[in-house]
Each structure stands twice: as C-alpha cells, then as structure tokens.
Amino acid sequence: MGLLEDLKTQILIADGAMGTLLYSHGISSCFEELNLLNNDEIQKIHEAYLQAGAKIIQTNTYGANYPKLARYGLEESVKEINIAGARIAKKAAKDKAYVLGTIGGIRSFKKNTISMDEIKRSFREQLFYLLSENIDGILLETFYDFEELKTLLSIARKETNKPIVTNVSLHEIGVLQDGTHLSDAFLELEELGADIVGLNCRLGPYHMIRSLEEVPVPKHSFLSVYPNASLPDYRDGRLVYETNESYFAESAIKFREQGARLIGGCCGTSPKHIEAMARTLKGLRPISEKIVKHRPIEVNSIPEPSDATPPLYETVKHRHSVIVELDPPKKLGISRFLEGAKALKEAGIDALTLADNSLASPRISNSAIGSIIKQEVNVKPLIHITCRDRNLIGLQSHLMGLHTLGMNEVLAVTGDPSKIGDFPGATSVYDLSSFDLISLIKQFNEGISYSGKSLGQKTNFSIAAAFNPNVRHLDKAVLRLEKKISCGAHYFITQPLYSENQILEVYEHTKHLKTPIYIGIMPLTSARNADFIHHEVPGITLSQTIRDRMNAVSHDPLASELEGLSIAKSLIDAAYDLFNGIYLITPFLRYEMTVELTKYIHAKQLVNAERRFING
Ligand SMILES: Cc1cc2nc3c(=O)[nH]c(=O)nc-3n(C[C@H](O)[C@H](O)[C@H](O)COP(=O)(O)OP(=O)(O)OC[C@H]3O[C@@H](n4cnc5c(N)ncnc54)[C@H](O)[C@@H]3O)c2cc1C
Ligand SMILES: [Zn+2]
C-alpha cells in the first residue's frame, strides 16, 4: 500500500513542528544544520512524533535550500543537509511510517527580495537530493506566495511520480495573499498535479477550520491541515505558543468534519498535540461529503463624485498637462506654502505634487498638507509615498487614509535612504520595494489588502512611478519602467533633466511604451545652485554652456533667476513636442518661478491651438 492508497480509506496523522520544538530546547542556530551536527536530536524528535501516533513524518529540511542556508554561511552544504535529513527520517520511520521530503516556501510577503529564477534553481537542487534518497513523497509547505508554489509544483510534478503535498499559508480566513479564494487555489493546485492540498502554519485551528468550511472536499486530491498551536505571543523576547492538547483533540474532530485526511501540526505543536489528535481520531473513517459555507467577499466600487476630474494618467494622454512639486515645509508654519499653492492653482496646474520627506529629512506630513490644499485651495494633491518611513502596516493604513480623504493621486517610490538625510541613524524600513508598493496599490484598486482580505471597497488610485533617466545605461532604467508597468504603474514622473539632448534620448528610449511620462524640469536659481547640482547630485551633469550662462550672471540674483527660467523654458520647448506631461519642481519654495513656467506652457498651448485653428 502507498500513501495515496491509504488516504482513500483512512485519516492519517502526520507529525508536528520541528523548528519551534528545537527552539524551545534552546537551539537558535540553523535547525537544518543539526542533520549534520546532532542527528540524534533530530531522530529523537521524529521518534517522539511516531510514538505519538504519526504515520507520516517530514524531513528536517524546511529551509535547507541555497538562499536560506546562505544566511548561515552553509550554502555549500545543500546536498549533505538534505541527504542527511532524509536518512535520519527514514531511519526513525523504519519502513513503518511514510517520510515526506519537506521544502519550504522562500518568499514571505516581500516578493522582490529574491527572483523567481533563483528560487527555481535552489528548488531544483533541493528536490534532486531529497528524491535521490527514495523518500515517500514531497511536502511543499508554508507558501504565502501562490505564484511561487504553482511554479515549484509544476517543476516537481515533472520530476517525480511520488505523492506531492502542497500546503499554503494564509494571513486571513479563506483567502490567499494575492486575493485568490482558497477553494480556487486548491483547484489550481489539483490541476497542476498536487495529490494532497491543504494549509499549514501561521493560523491556529480556529482560523483553519473557518477557512476549510468554505472549501468543498476535493474531488481529485486529498485535504491536509497542519495548524499552528495557537497565535504566537511575544514574551521576554521570544515567540511562544499556547500548550493546549485537549483543544487540539476537539479540533481534530472538526478537521475531519471538514474533509481533512492528512492531519498534523505546525509551529508551536509538539508530540503531545499529535498524540491528542491521533487518540481522538483513532478508528474514525474520513468523510467525503460536507456542506460548504459560502461567505461572499463583498467589494464595492465607490461611486465617482460628480465633480471629479479625470485621473492624471487619463488627462495626460489627451492633452498637455502640468504638475508642480512644492515641497511641504521643513519648519512649522505653512503660510508661504499656501500662497504658492494658490498662485500655482491660478496659473492652471493639474496637480500639486507633495514629496514624502524628500532627501530623507522630516517635513510637514504631505497627507496633512495635501488634505488642506485640497479643501482650501481646491487643487489636486499628488502624494508621494516612500517605502522608507512606513512598514507594511503603516503603508496600508496610509493608503486607506488617503482613500478616505479622497486623495487618489499617488507616486510610489522607494525613497531616499535615511543615511543621506538629517537623521542618518534612523531606520530605513523598506518592507516593500517600489515595485511591491505599486503592486500593493493596484491590489487596493481591486479592493484587496496585502494579505488578501477584502477592503470592502475598491480604491481608485492613479498610480505614478519614478523614472530616473540620469543613469549610465538608459536601457536598464527602461527595463525597470517596463517592470513597474507590469506591476500596475499608470504613468511616470522623471527626475529633473537638464539637456535637450537627454530629453530626446529619453523619448527615443521610451516611445514604444504606451504609458505617459511627465518630464521633470527644475529651474536653476543661481550659479552656486548649478554648481551644487552638477558636482553633488548623483547622476546629473550640467553642460558647460548652462554653467557658463549661470556664471555670467552670478553677481545678480534677479538676473540669475531670469537666466534659470530661460534655460528651463528651452528645456520645456524641447519636451513639449515629444511629451504631454511636464513636471515642474519648485526650488526652495520659490513658487514664482514655477508659476512663470506654468504660464509659459499654457501660452504655448494657446499658440498651438490658434495655429491649429488658423491652419484648419
Ligand atoms: C519624481 C520623483 C519623486 C521622488 N520623490 C521622492 C520623495 O518624495 N521622497 C523621497 O525620499 N524620495 C523621492 N524620490 C527619490 C526616489 O525614491 C529615489 O531616487 C529612487 O531611487 C528612484 O525611484 P524609485 O524609488 O522608484 O526607484 P527604483 O526604480 O525602485 O530603484 C530603487 C533602487 O534601484 C536602483 N536603481 C534604479 N535604477 C537602476 C538602474 N538602471 N540600474 C541599477 N540600479 C538601479 C536605485 O539606485 C535605487 O536604489 C523621488 C524620485 C523621483 C524620480
Ligand atoms: Zn509553521
């Protein structure tokens, strides 16, 4: 008889946690390395689970892959650790229990920390060594990223006919991180060839039972469930779980009622939990029919307010559009800022862009000031959002707040790192990259939070992303743009450009993209300002001609300003025929300069319109 054959008629008990058990024994080094250093300890744990009633145990190889072992400098030991892990488990099982070779998910919520190619490479390596030891099946567990699991399952299915168990991990009841409903996920996994589909880790029995209530008994696979002991608690600097064996015994009955046939435990569980479940389920046959609970996910689109202007990405597709950056002040007091916002509004800008603590220095919160100008000046705020100052919780709360305040224009950027700003020792959070943040906002627009939970409403953010053309290889920067588009960016805003040639070059490199681009133009204010930008701002070089022009008027502040404006106007002339979007950056709150440039652009628009009219 084989594992799958047994599951046709029986419920099989699996083992519980390995990692947290070792941790509770005081071990905090690499758990998988113990396969080499202390195989007795691992074998004893397997034996304790077998003794408790487990008929299926898993190898101690959860994190025995190249990227995870590399954290301990053990990346060259993938082969030895996996082979040893399989041998220890088989030795403990003595052919009386099945041994699954465990491979854990790599990506948690940060998608871009590691590429899929790297994940595939490391997976193939681990899979190869586990299969070489003639184990009874493969256990793919703790997958938060459904794409990752599907990709790896497809690879494994081609490599082996042995049973494959796929366990996903959920943050929320019944739904995966990308919003896929659990029942749909199981169907997809079945189609890709999983023999057993289920849940493990992160949630305890309560949330797992509620998740399984929404899932029919699979037709072409078996259902597995490996709950954590409880939600974790943080005590004295350690994660601890409740010990609750009798609760597990009761839960085992409910898992059976939900159609589970392979039942084990994950973090925080011990042989006592497994023993309690094995005892309770002894002699009970699995069920094949159940009533499925349907809990519809309700996501409503919010009605558009009747006076709503179109999002910037629409506006800029159809006509020239000017947006202006006016940085929130570094000191308290916003009167000059408000004057500027009003003047720019009167000059006819489409939005005022508000940086998020640019150059990593604290400024008045851009959402606070954005809300004020929206209400008092009736100008559209475009809120920059960096990944530097907020973790995944803060970012989501921020987005919900912006939506609630009706501020729908956002720019998603990584953010200048703290070390370049006023507080070099402050943490740069970077839970998400700019790509992840763009994807998150797109997911919000579908009404789904990062963890897959319904937000109750869809947001309607218009998503801008940053484009830095001041790099040596523009081709590579354009590849990043393409990736940002695939994540959900609606349009781009560039760093300031200072040469007509560069503007043309940007056009040539991006003309294949359908995504609109706002070209950044920041007027120079003085020869010193020009020198600073040329010598100290990474990636930006000013031509000798521009620097000579600014130097020639260095004695006269007014003439300097006029020369700065004149240079900016030439750049606008170069950009105007190639791009609809112009992004003006106000230097040092000198909004008179960006007002002048906005008027200049509108005058060009008028002249062009007249010309078109005259020419019919
Ligand atoms: C319009 C605009 C507004 C901005 N507003 C703010 C703000 O309000 N607050 C703030 O703190 N910062 C702001 N920045 C700065 C921005 O966060 C950083 O300059 C950032 O590195 C560039 O944009 P991104 O975050 O989308 O970078 P990404 O494209 O995500 O790049 C992130 C990292 O990758 C590197 N990288 C980028 N391109 C390449 C390439 N071609 N090859 C190799 N590596 C590359 C970069 O060095 C960077 O560290 C803004 C930038 C722009 C263009
Ligand atoms: Zn776990």
Automatic annotation (TrEMBL):
Cofactor(s) of this protein: FAD; Zn(2+)
GO terms under biological process: methylation
Residues involved in Zn(2+) binding: C201, C266, C267
InterPro entries linked: FAD-linked_oxidoreductase-like, HCY_dom, HCY_dom_sf, Mehydrof_redctse-like
GO MF term list: methylenetetrahydrofolate reductase [NAD(P)H] activity; methyltransferase activity
Protein name: Bifunctional homocysteine S-methyltransferase/methylenetetrahydrofolate reductase
Keywords (A to Z) from UniProt: FAD, Flavoprotein, Metal-binding, Methyltransferase, Oxidoreductase, Transferase, Zinc
EC number: 1.5.1.20, 2.1.1.10
Pfam families: MTHFR (PF02219), S-methyl_trans (PF02574)
Superkingdom per UniProt: Bacteria
Transmembrane segments: none
Limits of the Hcy-binding domain: 1-281
The protein's annotated pathway: One-carbon metabolism; tetrahydrofolate interconversion
